[in-house]
Amino acid sequence: MSDPAPVQHFIRSIIEADLASGKHAAIATRFPPEPNGYLHIGHAKSICLNFGLALDYQGTCNLRFDDTNPEKETEEYANAIQEDVRWLGFEWNGEVRWASDYFQALYDYAEELIGKGLAYVDDLTPEAMREYRGTLTQPGRASPCRSRTPAENLDLFQRMKAGEFPDGSRTLRARIDMASPNINMRDPVIYRIKRAHHIRTGDAWCIYPMYDYTHCISDALERITHSLCTLEFEDHRPLYDWVLEHLSVPAHPRQIEFSRLELHTTVTSKRKLNQLVMQRHVTAWDDPRLPTLHGMRRRGYTPAGIREFARRIGISKSDNVIDMAVLEGCIREDLEAKAPRVMAVINPLKVVLSNYQEGVTASRSAGFHPNHPEFGEREVPISREIWIEQDDFLETPPAGWQRLTPGGEVRLRYSYVIKCEEVVKDAAGNVVELRCSIDHETLGKNPVGRKVKGVIHWVSAAHALAIEVRLYDRLFLDAEPDSHKDRDFLEFLNPDSLKVVNGWAEACVAQAEPETRYQFERLGYFCADRFDYKPGERLAFNRTVTLKDSWSR
Ligand code: ATP
Ligand code: MG
Fold first, then answer.
1. CB of 29 closer than 6 A to ligand 1?
2. Is the minimum distance from the CB of 270 to ligand 1 under 6 angstroms?
3. What are the sequence ranges of the domains in the chain?
4. C-alpha 492 to ligand 2 mean position (Å)
5. Which of 17, 138, 383, 536 has the fewest CB atoms within 10 Å, i.e. is most exposed?
6. How far apart are CA 461 and CA 385, in angstroms?
7. In the structure, what pLDDT confidence band is assigned to residue 214 with cuts at 50, 70 and 90?
8. pLDDT tens sequence across 125-138
9. What is the reported pLDDT for 2?
10. Is it true that domain 103-210 has CATH number 3.40.50.2300?
11. What is the rounded distance in angstroms from the CA atom of residue 56 to the CA atom of residue 272?
12. Ligand 1 atom with least separation from CA of 271
């Protein structure tokens, strides 16, 4: 990976100070996703941060699944997450870790807390517990079970584990402070009874540890030095520290929070993405309109482009709401240098070159990239019938129009200058064909005695390859669809987020492997679909991103 130099931020400063002072000889970070959905662009920010820091400071980064909610977690999600991390260009340290690897250790630590009088089994119903917890303005009240003795608690906790009590009937709670101004510290639940099949431990457990309790201990067991998470966990940090301070764990990692990424015109919440998929507003988790890593990959986004995006948006504690144009700009820049250029027509209008001999083909070779001769060349054939873009012709054009118009001239890219001699219309008055003449003296030469400024793309009808083209637009019409108090985010779905058209491309793209990316000249960047690919059948191309609008005259 040869990415540009990282941008300095407060977490890097903390790490540099810790390395300089000798507090740590090397850093250890982790990326801790819950396998309850596919990763999205927000996770990419966290992945680039955690794995990127490990690379920059020659430390390590673990991939650890936070698998403490068996009902919502699946193997499919866990596999997709690993695939995404690798696709983004990162490799985790050693084996994949699972919070469930630590279920026995977590249980033993819970007994340690009980023995120290720092945890108790509570019989309050969830409703009663909520009632007792108090509010932001009112302190909580002690549960009648709070005064149970360690021996009593140990016995009850062991029986919870043994399956003697029904789901939800009892919990284990940390005994901290029911009057704390921080509600997370009002004796949080650390274990619950739940008979659910777990993807890794099967039915071995009927009690499961809560996230806050699990996370800090997992970090400590892995000797993580800097535990980086998003700002909503700031109020949980006192609990993170409390648990580690009161247990005989091998390390006490430092939790540091940064702000979540939010992207305009989309949603970055697994729950909402899940809803879009389950309710079939999109085709699947890898629908190219979604900001999931699987979706962005299928659309043609590049790992380097996404990493550059993460670098540019930076890391801080202030709001990180970013316009989609920033992400698209990073993808475009990466593809600009890397994607071979070919011609394709996605809204075809037939042109007959009336003074070009029938059955004759000529061709000219053209490079795949103006700045990269090493990309090679291909022959661009011409014959009597060609396809051009419908909107490159206007009968009554505005001032300054440089494309085709009746009686006007234009250059065919890599080929001749043509002149529009006749416009053929159907009964309804639609333009269905143009008859043009070719200036035989203009192949690779300027026309004599006049200037022709406009250049349009085209393909030879006899040679072109039929392709399916998927044109994607914003998934939502509102910049922040999930920010409206009284309106559901689904109300802002863009009904025209996908348009499928049939077009024509130069024959050389027939060889495109799945995921090959091209610039279709003047149209944008397109990617051969990863999955809808059957050799011999019509290739499907997904529009990754349009070009900057510099051609639009
Ligand atoms: P979501 O809210 O989408 O469900 P999550 O935080 O519940 O996300 P996790 O699987 O727990 O999803 O996230 C794994 C890691 O990715 C966490 O450290 C989390 O802080 C980070 N993360 C999740 N969303 C974002 C985001 N939008 N920006 C930056 N980091 C994020
Ligand atoms: Mg989470």
1. no
2. yes
3. 10-97+214-265+303-330, 103-210, 352-458
4. 25
5. 536
6. 5
7. very high
8. 999 999 999 999 99
9. 79
10. no
11. 34
12. 4
DSSP codes joined into one string, 239-296:
HHHHHHHTS--S--PEEEEEPPEEETTS---HHHHHHHHHTTSSSSTT-TTS-BHHHH
pLDDT confidence of residue 358 = 87
Model pLDDT, residue 551: 39
Q: Specify whether domain 352-458 bears CATH 3.30.43.10.
A: no
* 160 CB near ligand 1 (under 6 Å): no
**For residues 203 and 79, what is the distance between their CA atoms, to the nearest angstrom?**
21
Contacts by 205-210, CB closer than 8 A, 24 or more apart:
205/103, 205/161, 206/160, 206/161, 206/163, 206/167, 207/107, 207/160, 207/161, 207/172, 208/68, 208/69, 208/70, 209/68, 209/99, 209/103, 209/106, 209/107, 209/110, 210/68
pLDDT digits (tens, 9 = 90+) for 295-327: 999 999 999 999 999 999 999 999 999 999 999
Q: Is 35 in the pocket of ligand 1 (CB under 6 A)?
A: no
3-class SS shares of the chain: helix, strand, coil, % to 5:
30, 25, 45
Q: Is the pLDDT of residue 444 over 70?
A: yes
Pair of tokens at residue 448:
């004599």
Closest residue CA from atom 14 of ligand 1: 33
The band of 534, judged by pLDDT with boundaries at 50, 70 and 90, is confident
Position of tokens 């054939």? 381
Q: What spacing in Å lies between the alpha carbon of 293 and ligand 1's midpoint? A: 13
For the domain covering 10-97+214-265+303-330, report its CATH number: 3.40.50.620
Q: Are 314 and 326 in contact (CB under 8 A)?
A: no
Share of the chain above pLDDT 90, in %: 94
Average pLDDT over every residue of 474-499: 96
Please tell me the distance between residue 541's alpha carbon and the centre of ligand 1 in angstroms.
Answer: 31
Are 401 and 483 in contact by the 8 Å Cβ rule? The answer is no
Taking the model in full, what pTM does it have? 0.96
DSSP symbols for 506-521? -GGGGGPPTT-EEEET
